[in-house]
Design goal:
The structure is a single chain. By secondary structure, the protein is mainly β. The protein has two domains: 4-130, Elongation Factor Tu (Ef-tu), domain 3, CATH 2.40.30; 134-253, Jelly Rolls, CATH 2.60.120. The protein is built from one helix and 24 strands. The chain has one helix at residues 66-80, and strands at residues 4-6, 12-15, 20-22, 36-37, 43-44, 49-50, 53-62, 86-89, 92-98, 100-108, 114-123, 128-130, 134-138, 147-148, 162-166, 171-178, 184-188, 197-201, 206-209, 212-213, 218-220, 231-238, 244-249, 252-253. A six-stranded antiparallel sheet has the order 2-1-8-9-12-24, with helices on one face. The chain has a six-stranded antiparallel sheet with strand order 13-23-15-18-19-20, with no helix packed on it. The longest helix is centred in the N-terminal third of the chain and has 15 residues, at 66-80.
Length: 254
Amino acid sequence: MSVILKDISNVTKYTFPGGIDVKGEPWGQRLDSEPQSYAHGDIVTADEKVSSRIVYIHGRFGEASSAAMLTELKSMKKACYTSGYRLYATQNPNEYYNVKCLGFESEFLGQLTRAEVSIDFFVADGFRYYKDVTTDTKNPVVSGTPYALTNDNDGDIEVSPIISYTAGGTQTNVKIANAGDAAKYFEYAGGLVDTDVLEVDCLEGTVEKNGSSDIANWSGSFINLVSGVNTITCEITGTAGTSILSFEFRKRYL
């Protein structure tokens, strides 16, 4: 796989020519056994405190003609400076960085059909993300029974999921807890009837019932999914019925 720039829908927008690749760090990083993560994005590893990184791309390539070379360099530069693109690399083909181009340099190598490029990309949040969103869905038909997520967070660091709960009956209170995240929990006491949907975005800090904000009836803490096993409990006051509890998140790596 080559170095690729994709949009937020993972559609390829530009593929770098062969001979151009990511060089050195930050693709390898020695970690503490339990890296510490902070709300503003900083993390502490065994090496350093990391909040941002530079991804360095370098290489040489050739084209059949000078016209083709100039066209390729123009397309490459335009893609690099397009905002909102994700960078995929040979080292981790299923993971990406959110990048912003800091600098683009090119130099012809004695002839107009050979060139060397050096590109610096700034990674503001410092993390690599898995290309696909992970979803884990359960039917908590027995109130309060703990279960481990089947599709767990096997990334290096904790993530903040979007939690969706669809009521399977008339319910006056729902409590959702994660033993893996220091037993943090939240409760919703706004009342739910069959097919009502409660959505809690633990990253953005929002609570919606059927698409409308209803944080006034919510209490507790926004839950994270730690790296590894997360044991979830869902306590329902009322009729559990065919309720559905879903966690949606994107794994991230150091």
